Amino acid sequence: MSGFRAILVSREGEKGQKVELTDLTDNDLMEGDVTVRVTHSTVNYKDGLALTGSAPVIRRWPLIPGIDFTGEVEASDHADFKPGDAVILNGWGVGEAHHGGFAEKARVSGDWLIHRPASLSGKDAMAIGTAGYTAALCVLALTDHGLTPDNGPVVVTGAAGGVGSTATALLAKLGFHVIASTGRASEEAYLKDLGAAEIIARDELSGAARPLGKERWAGGVDSVGSHTLANVLSMTKYGGVVAACGLAQGMDLPATVAPFILRGVTLAGIDSVMAPKDKRARAYDLLTEHLDRAAFDAITTTIPLDDVPAAGADIIAGKVRGRTVVEIG
Ligand code: NDP
């Protein structure tokens, strides 16, 4: 039986929690038919919620958080995987109800794993992470709806965040005129480097929305929710489409049906956690083909496992720019 290091979140009192870096053994791993030597993970917004306890993300205690990981298969009883295979895991309730990626080892169902594309290193895969793969799902929702650069500009909200940065980079690479909305004026140069054509202040979209506003964009990727999504919808051109994936401003949607029934606007909901494998494969194809790896490298910060709790607090405080990769192996 071999030991491994892990971040463990345990219940303290009735509602509190404690987060510690601890040593575990294979006996502590959960059920699954593939055991993976984790080399990299990443800190997503949801991981921040789990690590700080600011939302009930963790549904089984004690738990190793971390909704993403990549690494090498150590042992497998699953037909699709053999020892030595490089794999990626995004979602499926890992880091919520099943031990996750903030550990040197993980055991999961092989049905949840995908093979890591040969062109992606472990660091690349986690720089993408759930945030990047969700951004790709959002972009696919727009293009599947028929949106092209000829239809007009697209808006990305929460643009300097993980989902927003990747969506901005992908849409720009596909030829869209990207309007990036951010609350951090200091990130203007960063967003322009990613390909944003225009920057607008978060405040322009964060107040109460009118039922219909001036038509400003043909579509959008929204990682913010609440009034921001209501404003994005109200300013979407006739026949446009908005992909909604996040709730950084709030879970509510104080909007009217006016954009839907008067402008034929489509609101596409995006879930990355339970997305089927074929959708995941399309998202990774889009990412490997169109993501500028060098630009993406520049937006990635690497931290050791020990720094994960602090990084979780920072992402919830809105202090994180781009992506945080956890180097484990
Ligand atoms: P980040 O924290 O990296 O990015 C969120 C961004 O939202 C921030 O960088 C900030 O961007 C903006 N923001 C933060 N607080 C507010 C606020 N109060 N009002 C308006 N804007 C705000 O998180 P991620 O990119 O990883 O995730 C973004 C959202 O998407 C989260 O809500 C997350 O839970 C959700 N998500 C959903 C998934 C799904 O499957 N549906 C999968 C992955 C993420 P800026 O500074 O540029 O304004």
Offer a concise description of the structure.
This protein has 329 residues and is α/β, with parallel strands linked by helices. It folds into 2 domains: 3-116 and 299-327, Medium-chain alcohol dehydrogenases, catalytic domain (Quinone Oxidoreductase, Chain A, domain 1), CATH 3.90.180.10; 130-269, Rossmann fold.
How does this structure look, described?
- With 329 residues, the protein is of the alpha/beta class.
- The protein has 2 domains: 3-116 and 299-327, Medium-chain alcohol dehydrogenases, catalytic domain (Quinone Oxidoreductase, Chain A, domain 1), CATH 3.90.180; 130-269, 3-Layer(aba) Sandwich (Rossmann fold), CATH 3.40.50.720.
- 30% of the residues lie in helices and 28% in strands.
- It is globular, with a radius of gyration of 20 Å.
- Bound molecules: NADPH dihydro-nicotinamide-adenine-dinucleotide phosphate.
- Residues 44-46, 130-131, 134, 158-164, 182-184, 202, 206, 223-224, 228, 245-249, 270-273, 315, 318, 320 line the site of NADPH dihydro-nicotinamide-adenine-dinucleotide phosphate.
